[in-house]
Write a structure and sequence with these properties.
Its cofactor is [4Fe-4S] cluster. By secondary structure, the protein is an alpha/beta fold. The protein contains five helices and seven strands, in the order βββαβαβααββα. The structure holds iron/sulfur cluster.
Amino acid sequence: MTVRVFGTAQDSIVDGPGLRYALFVQGCSHHCEGCHNAKSWPAEGGTLMTLGQILEQVHGNGLVRSVTLSGGEPFEQPEPLAVLAAQLKGEGYNLWSYSGYTYEQLQAMAAERPAVGELLAQLDVLVDGPFRKDLKSLGLLYRGSANQRLVDMPATLAAGEVVVWQPPAFEVQQPLEW
Ligand code: SF4
């Protein structure tokens, strides 16, 4: 299986807590005004990477135990990413994904496209919703605009409603907006 990829960051510290491998997928239909990554929008751009190539890069840095899917829109390629996510979770990696869709929209999409639900079920945290320029703030933790939520996926699936992820106290190093 292959993923259409815009780029990768093999030692990111801004796409979730800790040192992370970040996979930026190619293709996004949301076209948010003010998007920081508009070159990732065309679905036919980027580079095709096999799951094996991605895993080889993740394994290549022994200090990395966390992976973030970003974009582009990861949930527009859910089939290969659900397989990748299951492999990574099986190996004990912490897994986050960004999406321009809300959690509720993704749950509805999963009824028609099972891989959407399979990918959601593997995540520790979903950062959901489109980037909104009018709600942009540099003081937000791991997200660009105040409408976006850090959804604690295991807690949310257990509760049947959105539970917002709370960072460990030692990670908060500056005043934050919630
Ligand atoms: S969802 Fe993300 S990548 Fe897609 S247009 Fe919005 S900000 Fe850009």
